[in-house]
Design brief:
single chain, 192 residues, mainly alpha, Arc Repressor Mutant, subunit A, Tetracycline Repressor, domain 2, 2 domains, elongated
Length: 192
């Protein structure tokens, strides 16, 4: 018996996947998450319903994957292998996150609003979008402690929550999220 399993059906067309994600992002940007249907995305992408559902089980999974990829292209993980001071790594990471939030703020606010109305969407949003970024910050802070850049008594999980709470709060309230705010957060986290 062969170890390899034969593929069933046609292979996924990557161009179709990209077009579906691009159209989903464009529609959510223009109309907000709640106002976009699967039918709208299918029509805009010029694909069949089956093509979409062969890739994603729901609109939430599709939209969050598209935004996760977009964020990943705009925000790089902090390089913990570098000799850069961890305060500077945190500030650089937050600058990139805040630039992304500035450009996608309206979309992200609509995703957060949808997450409050739909528990399944909230779980997916947390698992695919929020938690991975929180894990990056927590790992950076743990590394800073190991290097002696951050006092051992500081609770890195709590600090990570404070950092995220500060910028999500500002995002949700339409307040400025800019480089000076990123620097202020990094300075305060690493103050002696």
């Amino acid at each position: 018996m062969s170890e390899k399993k034969a593929a069933i059906g046609r292979p996924k067309n990557e161009a179709a996947s990209k077009e579906i994600k691009d159209q989903a992002i464009a529609l959510v940007r223009a109309q907000g998450y709640a106002n976009v249907s699967i039918s709208d995305i299918i029509k805009a992408a010029g694909v069949s319903r089956q093509t979409l559902y062969n890739r994603w089980a729901s609109k939430a999974e599709l939209v969050l994957e598209a935004f996760f990829e977009l964020a990943g292209a705009q925000v790089s993980a902090p390089d913990l292998g570098s000799g850069i001071p961890r305060r500077d790594l945190l500030a650089r990471f937050l600058h990139e996150v805040f630039d992304h939030l500035d450009s996608e703020g309206d979309c992200l606010r609509s995703l957060i609003a949808a997450a409050q109305m739909d528990g399944d969407f909230r779980d997916i949003f947390w698992a695919r979008f929020v938690s991975p970024r929180a894990d990056l910050v927590t790992a950076l802070l743990k590394d800073a402690q190991e290097r002696g850049d951050l006092h051992a008594s500081r609770d890195v999980d709590l600090l990570s929550s404070f950092i995220h709470g500060a910028f999500w709060y500002r995002l949700l309230n339409g307040q400025s999220i800019d480089g000076s705010f990123a620097d202020a957060i990094a300075d305060d986290v690493f103050r002696v």
